[in-house]
Amino acid sequence: MPNNFQAIHHVSMIISNIEQSIWFYCTVLKLELDPSRPKMSSDGLWLIINEQQQLHLLLTDNPYKSVKQAENLGLDRHVALKVKNLKAIMLRLDKYEIAYKTSQSGRQALFCRDPDNNTLEIQE
Question: How far is the C-alpha of 93 from the C-alpha of 111, rounded, in Å?
Answer without folding.
Answer: 11
